[in-house]
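Q: Given only this backbone (226 positions), what sequence would you predict?
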């Protein structure tokens, strides 16, 4: 386990490097050390076929980047940072949506771009990957549906004005609809599912909307009047 002194050093070193870089691409010893670690971890992940195991590996390796990320978010001026962007994606895959969104807010504010192999823009990646992860978690027993809804609302607000394919935005609204339904917010659920359907008529929510409408009518009938 890394000592508190070492963690402090890593965070401060990253903050100084981020501040020194300004708006130029990230550089310096702290960044190069993280790049080297990232390269080795990326090789490990590429050699692993199981998606479930990949997620486990990401949960195991992500703590080594935590202080670097904290330092960059604390003092960064918007330097392009491939380490930061990769960690954001790994956090989503590992189920750490709060940690990923913290990076996403910085990335969208400063216009950081995703790693080269991604054809989608940053906002589209955030919207789609968080939606996919949220939909997966919503299917799991004991999911924290309130927290998932908060994360999805954050992402929707963060990416609302960005240009992206309608299918991606539809998926985000589908996830929002399911999260609202899971937390008992049926009117909001209907709004988001209808929006998802309007954006993509193959999004697969028509039957959900029918069930939701029946449930809302049942609730209305059961509510005392007067």
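A: Predicted residues:
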């Amino acid at each position: 386990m890394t000592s508190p002194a070492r963690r402090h050093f890593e965070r401060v070193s990253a903050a100084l490097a981020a501040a020194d870089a300004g708006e130029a691409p990230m550089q310096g010893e702290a960044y190069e050390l993280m790049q080297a670690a990232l390269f080795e971890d990326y090789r490990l992940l590429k050699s692993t076929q199981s998606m479930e195991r990949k997620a486990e590996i990401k949960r195991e390796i992500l703590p080594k980047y935590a202080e670097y990320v904290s330092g960059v978010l604390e003092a960064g001026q918007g330097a392009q940072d491939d380490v930061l962007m990769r960690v954001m994606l790994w956090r989503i895959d590992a189920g750490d949506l709060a940690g990923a969104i913290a990076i996403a807010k910085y990335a969208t504010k400063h216009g950081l771009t995703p790693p080269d192999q991604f054809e989608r823009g940053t906002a589209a990646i955030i919207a789609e990957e968080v939606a996919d992860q949220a939909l997966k978690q919503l299917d799991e027993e004991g999911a924290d549906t309130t927290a998932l809804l908060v994360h999805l609302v954050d992402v929707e607000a963060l990416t609302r004005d960005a240009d992206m394919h309608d299918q991606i935005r539809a998926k985000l609204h589908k996830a929002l609809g399911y999260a609202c339904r899971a937390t008992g917010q049926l009117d909001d659920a209907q709004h988001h599912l209808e929006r998802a359907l309007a954006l993509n008529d193959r999004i697969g929510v028509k039957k959900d909307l029918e069930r939701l409408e029946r449930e809302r009518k049942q609730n209305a009938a059961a509510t005392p009047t007067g």
